[in-house]
Amino acid sequence: MPQVTMAAALNEALRYSMRNDPHVIILGEDVGKLGGVFRITDKLQEEFGEERVLDTPLAESGIVGSAIGMAMYGLRPVCEMQFDGFTYPAFEQIVSHLAKYGFRSRGRMRLPIVVRIPYGGGIGAVEHHSESLEAYFTHTAGLKVVTPSTPSDAFSLLVRSIEDPDPVIFLEPKRRYWIREDVDLKPNGLPIGKAAIRNEGTDVTLITYGPSVRTCQEAVEEAAADGVSIELIDLRTLVPLDLDTIMASVRKTGRAVVVHEAQVTGGFGGEIAARIMEDDFLSLQAPVIRVGGFDIPYPPAKLEDVHLPDLDRVLDAVDKVLNY
Amino acid sequence: MEGRRGIVDPSSVPTETIQLLKPDGTLVPDTGYEADLKKDDLLEIYRYMALARRADLEGTNLQRQGELGVYTPLIGQEAAQVGTGYALDEGDWIFPSYREMALAMMRKIDPVDILHLFRGTWHGGMWDPKEHRFAMYSVPIATQALHAAGFAIAAKLDGAKTVALGCFGDGATSEGDFHEAMNFAGVWQAPVVFLCQNNQYAISLPLSKQTAAPTIAVKAIGYGFPGVRVDGNDVLACYVVAQEAVRRAREGNGPTLIEAVTFRIGPHSTADDPTRYRTQDEMDHWGALDPISRFSKYLELEGIITDEFKQKVDDEAKELATHIRAEIVGAGPRPAHELFEFVYSEPSDILRREEWLLYEELAGRDEEGD
Ligand SMILES: Cc1ncc(C[n+]2csc(CCOP(=O)(O)OP(=O)(O)O)c2C)c(N)n1
């Protein structure tokens, strides 16, 4: 099987979807000739032309807002935000219109739009290029929020997101763009909203997503060496949330740790902790612990390693719930 | 269309640029503009341009050597920045994007303090904005145009004579914030000068795909104030145009949008590959219009500059490069506790707990490390 990176898998998912459905179009800054700053749209304009791969003016509100109009006309736009930090100008269109149009129109006008956002830190970038903005979107009803962690999931979930009748915020963990996997890129029927169990275990449930999955995999191995058995859940989709998979695991282990890069206050980890507690408080043998970044603006590159939850911070939390 | 009233036709807009110096360094006759610059001013302008170019080159070199994460070169845009900057008073404020090294240096900001931003030492920049009357670098496009407008409105309300200069690129004129800034400035007749350095590209996108307007300068009309298009590689033209705009602002006659037509000789940033979207012909064309050699030819033709002076500036530039290198190469991170120090004027209890957690983590790392 060929070795593919997540970046190549996403590129292939776009190509597959565009070949499959002539209504799929791409729009964003520098997505044409340049192929996007991360080359996720590489060579697509060559194959599909300037009318399906649109280099837009530098205007994020313009990109999402005009995609809404295009979708109303009958297209299936896939928008690219160049970096997480440049999504904010589009926020008004995403929150006030993209998320709500289906509801406001009593289901008569669905907006099948995907907004792709390279997100998260760990690449040594300058400011505004490392934001973990998932909680803004999970807190906005009407959006689906997807974040893959492997090349094959990235491929399948992007294809599914483009086919989805509802708007999807597709968060690409940019520091994992270059991880490789042996995989044949074919749609495999993976639905949005289904978590993966990356490792089966009995002592603690570790719940995470996107860029933090790798870090947690390392933690699983490290803990195993110490005789601790961790069950690792990769959520893959934050909204809708696969609570069944989470609860089945927590009932088995009795302990849970949630890990993400985003700051802890108001983060998605709090949502998961609260759900677990509400759903089955008595299955817990220790409080759910959240591991995340500090409550600070994303730090400068030279200090990002002290901010991002690393192996040690995860393992400390695992110890804490084990020794409660 | 002749005879029909009420139509404003974009093709009726003048598209020529104001130029005082031809590319060969001779003066354009009868421009109606005259620069009130003395010999010392002219030499100082030359010096700023040369020093900025050298500091900029050092930025690119340091990035190539892995000392900076990324760098956004200004090479080719020295005239637009120095010409405009020279028209400001010391008390006026500048609101830069991320390519304003020359303007920053005119404000006595050490280029090292800019390069630390690109090294990942600290965000925004290491300088004190109040001391230099130079706001932090702004990465999100066009946002700072509103800060400039707001600052100018406040200055006007206060009865001060301060002018704000808002800097951005051609791509920025597509963002909502650009339009909102222009509109606010127009409504309040704010003492602000907007400087658009039209360097032809926003990363890979040429101006023709950014706007259908015949010029960027013309956009000002829609907001009720003048726009002016100037040869951005001609430092004298940039100076006279800015001087007029600054005077208008200071006298209470409102904003001006300046479009300085120039070219970004380098890549957008060191992470960019311009061969994907730019031709060699284009590079050659603009290379021949280099702003520093044009001005230097003029100074030679007029007998204003001596080899000795050039040598002196050259030596100063070398010293500057050495200084930059000495300060940047190997510079370590800031102390980690600063991450918590600047979030709020007083850290919250939760932040203090997090700071303590980090303190313990780092102590643990040290133990493991050695
Ligand atoms: C809101 C926002 N969107 C996207 C970007 C990514 N980006 C950085 S620079 C740039 C092009 C800017 O072009 P222009 O305004 O012409 O300025 P120049 O870089 O040419 O000086 C883009 C798209 C950004 N920094 N901010």
Describe this entry's structure for a reader.
The complex is a heterodimer of chains A (324) and B (370). Chain A is of the alpha/beta class. Chain A is built from twelve helices and 14 strands. In chain A, strands 3-2-4-5-7-6-12 form a seven-stranded mixed sheet, sandwiched between helices. The mean pLDDT of chain A is 97. The mean pLDDT of chain B is 96. Chain B has helices spanning 39-64, 78-85, 101-106, 111-119, 129-132, 143-157, 176-187, 207-210, 235-250, 280-287, 291-301, 307-328, 338-341, 349-369; strands spanning 93-95, 164-169, 192-198, 201-202, 205-206, 227-231, 256-261. In chain B, the strands form two sheets. Chain B has a five-stranded parallel sheet, sandwiched between helices. Chain B has 370 residues and is α/β, with parallel strands linked by helices. In chain B, helix 1 packs across helix 2 (78-85), helix 1 runs antiparallel to helix 11 and helix 1 (39-64) runs parallel beside helix 12 (307-328). Chain B contains 14 helices and seven strands. The A-B interface holds A 29-30, 32-35, 37, 55, 57-62, 85-86, 88-89, 124-129, 265, 294-297, 299-304, 306-307, 312-313 and B 69-70, 117-124, 139-141, 171-172, 174-177, 202-205, 209-211, 271-273, 276-277, 332-334, 336, 339-340, 343, 348, 350-351, 354, 358, 361-362, 364-365. Thiamine diphosphate sits between chains B (99, 139-141, 168-172, 199, 201-203, 264, 268) and A (29, 58, 60, 82, 86, 89). Thiamine diphosphate (TPP) sits between chains B (99, 139-141, 168-172, 199, 201-203, 264, 268) and A (29, 58, 60, 82, 86, 89).
